[in-house]
Specification:
Blueprint: E1 16-20, H1 24-30, H2 35-56, E2 60-67, H3 75-98, E3 101-106, H4 114-127, E4 133-141, H5 143-156, H6 166-170, E5 183-186, E6 205-208, H7 218-230
Parallel strand pairs: 1-2, 1-5, 2-4, 3-4, 5-6
Helix pairs in contact: 1-2, 2-3, 3-4
């Protein structure tokens, strides 16, 4: 990940890209492998995609790693997926730190084990001063849960109702000091947000590719960026002629 940003000059680079990493299980099933093999391939693909993000000069990336709804999957799959994510933190934190990546966790921690939470906290602390790329790992994350948590904190802080507006509310979200995502990418052909950054993505451009996440690579990311560059973003306004 040592290369410098070298995005083609004609590209418009989003300030923040969210990625819904979908299709690991289907990728494995197509190959006659257990679903967990697909999740393993998916976690191994993260480094490759982050290297491409650095190359293109994307400053903030949010990866949807494990949702609040994923707890409803078969227990053995949940245990296996969380174990893979924990090992990924063990394996990748030092590499990301050396390459200037700041790791953040967005989501809840009450259902994660204490050792897992400690590893997350250590990765966040180690990389907190890095500025090359901010990586949000959305782990035990749900957009509705995030909004509920924000409301609880607002109430706990005693904020009067008349003081609450969109700007204040945004400051209570997990992504408080970050720009809203300009682009949401979803792999595996699905056409829904699945409770991902539902407040922040109000005006994000959406890009869906049929490619399963383990096969999503630099070229796929480049195609998403080209599609984003071609979009006309009006934010509810009328184009000036």
């Amino acid at each position: 990940m040592s290369r410098e940003a070298t995005a083609p000059p004609e590209l418009v680079i989003p300030r923040h890209v969210g990625i819904i990493m979908d299709g690991n299980g289907r990728w494995a099933q197509k190959r006659g492998l257990p679903r967990l093999a697909g999740h393993r391939a998916g976690t191994e693909n993260i480094r490759r995609v982050l290297e491409a993000c650095v190359e293109f000069g994307i400053p903030v990336v949010t990866l949807y790693a494990f949702s609040t709804e994923n707890w409803g999957r078969p227990p053995e799959e949940v245990r296996g997926l969380l174990a893979l994510l924990e090992r990924s933190i063990d394996r990748e934190t030092e590499h990301l730190h050396r390459n200037g990546v700041q790791i953040r966790h967005i989501g809840r921690t009450d259902r994660l084990g204490p050792l897992f939470c400690d590893k997350i906290a250590q990765a966040v602390a180690l990389t907190r001063n890095n500025r090359r790329l901010i990586l949000n790992v959305a782990l035990d994350y749900g957009g509705r849960a995030e909004i509920v948590d924000a409301v609880r904190r607002i109430v706990s802080d005693g904020v009067p109702a008349e003081a609450i507006d969109e700007a204040l509310f945004s400051r209570y979200l997990y992504t408080a000091d970050l720009p809203d995502p300009d682009l949401i990418i979803r792999t595996a052909g699905e056409m829904r947000l699945s409770n991902f950054l539902i407040w922040q993505a109000a005006y994000a451009e959406y890009y869906s590719t049929p490619t399963y996440w383990p096969d999503f690579d630099r070229e796929e990311l480049l195609q998403a960026l080209k599609a984003f560059t071609a979009r006309e973003r009006r934010f509810g306004l009328v184009k000036q002629t």
